[in-house]
Specification:
It is a single chain. The chain is mostly helical. The protein folds into two domains: 56 residues; 53 residues. It is built from four helices and no strands. The longest helix has 54 residues. 0% of the residues are buried.
């Protein structure tokens, strides 16, 4: 009789251990699934943002060669040597970012 009880005890212990392992595996899989779901939602939102940015027409912000042709070559040379062609887009981008940040609530505290 004792051997039967010992066998039942070990069988139930193994069964409960197996259920515990299954529960842990299900929890880990669900956790990974939720994490992947959050990443998927973020990827979709960023895809929409990229599509919106690609839809913008920014051709008016680029300089044309005809704009430089009306200036004397000496002035164009000095402007290129001083790095004005690099500085102007940086300043324009900074002003644009500042204007965009003004649209977000509670960011007007510093300006």
């Amino acid at each position: 009789m004792q051997t039967l009880l010992d066998w039942l005890k070990t069988a139930f212990d193994k069964l409960f251990s197996w259920f515990g392992d299954i529960f842990v595996a299900i929890f880990k899989a669900a956790w990974d699934f939720l994490g992947d779901g959050v990443c998927w939602v973020l990827e979709q939102l960023l895809g929409v943002a990229v599509s919106a940015a690609n839809a913008l027409d920014l051709s008016g912000l680029q300089g044309h060669a005809s704009d430089w042709s009306i200036m004397p070559p000496e002035i164009v040379n000095v402007m290129q040597l001083s790095g004005l062609s690099v500085a102007v887009p940086i300043v324009v981008a900074a002003i644009g970012i500042r204007l965009i940040l003004q649209l977000i609530p509670f960011t007007r505290l510093g300006s």
